[in-house]
Amino acid sequence: MYEHLKQQPADKILALIQMYGEDPRDQKIDLGVGVYKNAEGVTPVMRAVKAAEQRIWETQDSKAYTGLAGDPAYSDAMIGLILGTVVPRGNIAAVATPGGTGACRQAFELIRMANPSARVFVSNPTWPNHLSILNYLGIETVLYRYFDSESRGVDFDGMMEDLKAAQAGDVVLLHGCCHNPTGANLNLVQWQEVINLINERGLIAMIDIAYQGFGDGLEEDTQGVRLVASSVKECLIAASCSKNFGVYRERTGLLMAITADAGQTAVLQGNLAFLNRQNYSFPPDHGARVVTTILTDDALRADWMNELEEIRLSMLGLRQQLADELQRLSGSDRFGFIAEHRGMFSRLGAAPELVEKLRADHGIYMVGDSRLNIAGLNAKTIPILANAIVEVGI
Ligand SMILES: Cc1ncc(COP(=O)(O)O)c(C=O)c1O
Hints:
The chain has 394 residues and is of the alpha/beta class. The chain has 2 domains: 128 residues, Aspartate Aminotransferase, domain 1 (Alpha-Beta Complex); 232 residues, 3-Layer(aba) Sandwich (Aspartate Aminotransferase, domain 2), CATH 3.40.640. It is 45% helix and 13% strand. Pyridoxal-5'-phosphate (PLP) binds next to helix 4.
């Protein structure tokens, strides 16, 4: 049977990591992989996570299965974190999932189960795994314009024009905040316009939120999500704790299915649990328990929020320093967008040949679409990167 298998295409980011590892140059800089790194280049375990793990170690007396939806306390805590109180709890079905990827996968499966002819409209560009999972599941995808390569902001007119091709029942996938890979985000007025279009045309909103707290603040980053969740009839939200709790390998995510008709919630909940059962039975518990422990304890929550805020501010600082240095070296304001973007990534909008030149001539590694991980920078590497960007002529 194995002879029928074809080689899968190499994952571009993993291939980049390997090339970086094999590069003998001392001055090489890794701006490719999408994990947060501090000034020492370390992806730390957050203080509150360590404390919660210790508490769990001391008090946990069983590792018997939880429920198919995970621990309800985790769903409650995450719903509070993401939505506050804008949607009554009785209108939300939720399950724990293995990371944000698991949440997206389950959301797509639910869409296919509920409406096999639904198409999913995704931003161009988007996180590549969205497209890859949708293709794998045989769900038709339609790209909508998103990134304006001149201004490096959102091409909102193009986006709205393309979304007008969506028909009743089609799904519009939006990034909750900190758009990956561009760093360019909708403002609240634009969110409202998208919501109006969704409601006028009978579309379904799906939001992927993987960087809450990395953009404008923990609450601020949910403004668009909350507006959507409280204004549309049906909405799916896939959330990841990988970045904002730094629990990447624990695989901690949540899928919410929101309905304006509370009479549907029980059936939705049953279907989400069913999907968990089919794919992996019980979702992972450790990361979810850590997150719940933190969010439900005042002291741990405050400490986590402080550390997350330090991380957010350090990334904003790096953005500003890079934009300033580029302004100084190039004598132009054309790199101001780097300070305007939010989250861990910025798309430079450079041609692949120039990205390759940065790697070959300067040992600077970023994804081929010119996405750079801001958290991969520090005070020492910013001038090196800025010099290289100007030298290769971006
Ligand atoms: C936009 C987006 N969604 C979802 C994820 C999923 O993250 P994870 O499965 O590691 O929680 C990521 C991670 O890179 C992402 O960038």
